[in-house]
Amino acid sequence: MKDCLKLITERRSITFFDPNREVPLELIKEILEVSATAPSGYNLQPWQVVVVIDKEKKKKLKEICYNQQKVEDASANVVIIANTRAGFDNVDRVLDSWIELGYIQSSAKEQLKETIQMGWSDPQKAKKKAVRDSALFAMNLMITARAYGLETHPMEGYDEVKLREFLELKEHQEPVMIIAIGYKDPNKTLLPRAYRFKFEEFGKVM
CA–CA separation, 133 vs 44, rounded Å? Predict the structure, then answer.
């Protein structure tokens, strides 16, 4: 338990990465696959990612992110994308795996599939579901990266129109955030963690 709490409480949003240290792509893939154990409604896993590691593409992404230097200095930038069609695109693979694992009988598949797709038929509800679950994946990613000795920084500061063009996203693909990942610059010192609200300031008991 202590190790888990340590990973969570010591995670910081690092603004300065070591530009001279690269994270192997295979390690990034491993981290992403571990992160994909995040929960999602009906296990539909609506997240998609684009890993930007090419130096020239990172420079372009940096411009899209209003010239945030960490985008270029980080070893990679993981763009988290919510697939708002996941209820249609992923449902068969998910339900077939449930049948194989014994979660449901094959005779129940079509009825359950219809129920799931009804919940994804409204565009606003579908977007909410996809973004929510993709955010859970993103948090898993940041904690998992910390477990591997890496640092991260989630970003919402980017030109969405230009990002869509850069990644050639389709209408049903909703960019959620960009997470820079890499090693902290050893020559920089972190300031103390910024103030966090106490339970009495954000919660109540009923």
Answer: 9
Secondary structure of residue 4 in the 3-state scheme: helix
Tracing tokens 């679950």 back to the chain, one arrives at: 133
Res. 178: pLDDT tops 90: yes
Contact between 157 and 65 (Cβ < 8 Å): yes
Q: Euclidean distance between the first and final Cα of the chain, in Å?
A: 28
CA 163 to chain centre: 16
Domains of the chain: 13-186 (3.40.109.10)
The pLDDT tens digits for 110-119 are 999 999 999 9
* Residues near 28 by beta carbon (within 8 Å), at least 6 away in sequence: 51, 53, 75, 76, 78, 181
β-bridge partners, 153 = 180
48 phi and psi, to 5 degrees?
Answer: -135, 155
Q: What does residue 63 show for φ and ψ, rounded to 5 degrees?
A: -60, -40
> Letter for the amino acid at 40?
S
185 with 18: CB under 8 angstroms?
yes
Residue range 119-135: mean pLDDT, rounded? 98
Burial of 53 (0-12, 13-18, 19+ CB in 10 A): middle
* CB atoms closer than 10 angstroms to residue 59: 12
Evaluate whether 206 touches 39 at the Cβ level (below 8 Å): no
The pTM assigned to this predicted structure is: 0.95
